[in-house]
Amino acid sequence: MSSNPQNLVQKLWNYCNILRDDGLSYGDYVEQLTFLLFLKMADEQSRPPFNKPSPIPKGKDWPALLAKDGDELEIHYRHTLEELGKRSGMLGVIFRKAQNKIQDPAKLRRLALMNLFLHGVEPHIALGDTIYEPDRGEPPGNSSVS
To answer: Which sequence spans correspond to the domains of the chain?
Structure first.
């Protein structure tokens, strides 16, 4: 996958169309993408050069998620969302009532692996107008999405 943000965004939205065919709405896709991005960005902030303490407990963090596959991944992700939603402070607020809406473990794995390629993409690009385009309410470059 290219590190070009526009190419990455297009690939993410192409995958949204696949998940939409499985019954996942645009809002559900954005929600799941946000949860995964949050886990990945928390992990990146805990590494050099930032070295900040991660708000995500060990075993429920990004590396633990990537270590799983198949049904084990889906179960682990579901439990991670549930546990993080029970935490105090902002972490609990972000994940409160969070649910895994990607039932196919292979598709969940693919979306998680796509997030690996966001390394080096600035957070305001990953979480801002480039991916979400909230004013349009639709995937970027895909105005025909219904």
So the answer is: 5-127
Check whether 123 has a pLDDT greater than 50.
no
Which residue in this structure is represented by tokens 């993409």? 121
- The tokens describing 74, both together, are 């889906």
Give mean pLDDT, residues 33-60: 93
Go through the chain and tell me how many residues it has: 146
pLDDT in the model for residue 12 = 76
Q: Are 81 and 98 in contact (CB under 8 A)?
A: yes
Query: Does the domain spanning 5-127 belong to CATH 3.30.540.10?
Result: no
Give the DSSP per-residue string, the chain: --S-HHHHHHHHHHHHHHHHHTT--HHHHHHHHHHHHHHHHHHHHTSTTT-PPPSSPTTSSHHHHHT--HHHHHHHHHHHHHHHHTSSHHHHHHHTT-------HHHHHHHHHHHHTTTTS-HHHHHSTTTT-TTTTS-TT-TT--
